[in-house]
């Protein structure tokens, strides 16, 4: 309820001041979106209040899950904000970033509220130490392999090579023009690409969700003294990444398919031709789509395997 009050006030402040909550590629959206944010928060407050007073009736639980889904949609872009803040020392719009962060917090709180009357049996075993099923591990393999062309493309540029008609020197100039941070530029001067390193971390997270952490990094077993990794530690970045990369990649691949078929025209951007932009787009967005879907599957598996349940959930 406290989050709902804060989110409502935030939406009203943006709507009344004419501050846009959506920013994409330098284009600002309508400030009317603030009214939608305020309406969502205003609806969540009484729903949570009634649930706290009278218990979670089926209709209240359904409303909470609907609001949770809407908050998840509003949180889209949070991962991109975190990456640009880390390596660019700024975000495209601080108001938009604040909306993403508040919406993500609301998504987690609303989901917790919707499940607040679920009390799993203390006798039920935790299976966090077990590996995921074969199909889940196969999805992790696909998500890993999909990142290889992307990482190779980025490393070619970082090492000074040329790909899709753009040299490493040109790509560095583009990064400087776009306001890349000193950390980003320093990594490129060492022949490393920041996004390729993030991809490696993402793959490590993916396999940590489907394999026991002690097998991924055996020394952790000694560090943790036999204790399991807290489930929220890998689930938090996994849920943020899945909510961002899966829809971004899938929608992007759909757009590229239309561009390849000639239905729409793709802008060349910083590349010398639309064909070069299309090639790079396929490599990047196909990786995000495959990895994002794999992360959704792996996160769901990890969630179920770390929840005390009866039976054989995968």
Automatic annotation (TrEMBL):
- Which UniProt keywords are present, listed alphabetically? Membrane, Transmembrane, Transmembrane helix
Membrane-spanning parts = 35-56, 63-88, 94-114, 135-153, 194-214, 235-258, 278-298
Q: Which domain of life is it from?
A: Bacteria
Kindly provide the name given to this protein in its UniProt entry: Uncharacterized protein
Organism the protein comes from: Micromonospora cremea
